[in-house]
Amino acid sequence: MKSLPRRALNAARFRGRRAAARGRVTAVALADRATGAARRSVPAPVRLRLSRTFLRPSQSSMVAIDQLLLGAQGGLSPKEFSQATGDLLWPSTPLAAGPHVQLLAADGALTDEQILASPYGQLGLRCLKTSGSYFWADAPAGVVEVARDFLARKESSSYEPRANQSGPADPILVERIRGSEYFGVLDGHHRIALAYAAGETTVPVTVKRTTASTPLQDLLLRMSWLDGTKELYQPLPAPELERGWTLVRQCTDRLEKMQAFLSARGISPGSYLDVASCYGWFVAQMSAAGFLAEGVERDPLAQPLGSAVYGLPASVVHIRQCEDFLAAAGRRWDVVSCFSLLHHFALGRGTIGPAELVRLLDEVTGKVLFLDTGQDHEAWFGTSLAGWDTPRIAGFLAEHGTFDEIINLGPDSDGVGPYAGNYGRHLFACIRH
């Protein structure tokens, strides 16, 4: 009995999306059909219970345009469109920064070629290709025609920013993004963009009662070290992560210490390797600083995430256990970093011991190794890492490496908020002259 309503609703939605891709019905009509079909397929007792959840009518509301994300396109849901186009961040992009608004902001008259080359033109071609709404040979002309009509509506001020207050059959339809203050747009992108171009800051919308997550949120929750928790281990610039997701490690504090040290020592950009590179934030930052930067990370989801969020080529993040990668490297990088990894080996969680990990890191380091690790002053390691303090770690690095200097650059800034009493890990620079 529990699976019947979901199956019926999904089937109705699938049929509705196919019809929408062919331009036969409006978004609101789709919603009504899906709801009605599901209601008719559900037995009466179950129907009564469901009426208090996803079969309830949607809610009308005024929403700030800055809270609206691009959402659905081309008759596909946000997740379907993201998957079909390989664009992980499309559903996470503010509509005000999207291609609809960009087209309206263009200066002067646009040629057909300029329209097709614009983000809006490229979006139109992607939509037609994924939905099959046009014969492909007619697609460019169709995109240009729609774009020119869109631009003409701006010039004639026919944006109707408050259209659904006067009772039309096709309101702007949005859905709440789970764990955030944002909404994904399901229908009405052009009307919102026209309202924004006209100086409006809010628009009337119809908000679905159900909520949805974005593909970025889903990917993060699948990453192996999170175990379903809403924690970020490196900065990720996405609006739906601003509230409800905790940034565990600032990262900027370590980067500033690293760059200041390299500058003071006169070490110019060369090759760089981040061991246990997580999402790839340090790889991206060091690449921007002029380094030929790479990372190694065990979770294969790090590649699509780093590519989408930081623009990293998949080839610069090696998916492998770090100890296996280091043992087989057969080369050195000028600068190597290894953050918050060594203590896992000290706790017996690796395939080798902590001394062997230090030896492997030593072998691949050409000039400087930057390293921090969990320490015994942290509440969660007070017993398990007893004696693993700053002087002990410095001595351990000197004993098992061949570095000429071990310099303590000071603690991180992560021991705040829910992590008070933890972190404050000291960053060491291990130097080879």
Automatic annotation (TrEMBL):
Bilayer-spanning residue ranges: none
Superkingdom: Bacteria
CDD domains attached to this UniProt entry: ParB_N_Srx (cd16387)
SUPFAM superfamilies reported in the protein's UniProt record: ParB/Sulfiredoxin, S-adenosyl-L-methionine-dependent methyltransferases
Family annotation (Gene3D superfamilies): Conserved hypothetical protein from pyrococcus furiosus pfu- 392566-001, ParB domain, Vaccinia Virus protein VP39
Name this protein carries in UniProt: ParB/Sulfiredoxin domain-containing protein
Lineage per the UniProt record: Bacteria, Bacillati, Actinomycetota, Actinomycetes, Mycobacteriales
